[in-house]
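Data card: per-record layout.
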Amino acid sequence: MPCYRCGVRQTDPERGKSPWRRGVVHDQLVLICPVCQESADWTAELERCTKCRSAHLIRRLGQVECLDCGLVREPEALPNPGLNPGSNPGLNPGSNPGPSPGPLVSVGGPDAAGRVPAASRPPGAADAALADEVSRALDRLLGRA
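The structure for this 145-residue chain is written out next.
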């Protein structure tokens, strides 16, 4: 799963606690990379618990749970169809998913970390990059040269 804010994908995990953070946006689980966490407002778009106002929410087993106070709730009924799996109009002919959310980063060239925002990549580039990354990971795992 890519970073919700910049689109960068996780690399092979290191031992120990992951520096990536989880959150919930429109009742969907999202990940935020360590670089995006350096922004002062990185939690501004995350949903908050209705009981304790914490942004420390996760989505699992079809429910949204607050990890601070333990409140569990059912997700809203398709609050943003563009973020829900299975709402791809190509897979569901005749459906109208409505407007999809725009990019959360400025469109342009690579940032200081060398990442290119997802919105400025040509169509299919993310798929090709992901396929290449998976291929390299399999080669490492299987001991191929």
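Known properties of this structure: The two ends are 27 Å apart (CA to CA). Confidence is low (pLDDT under 50) at residues 84-109.

See the next section for split statistics.
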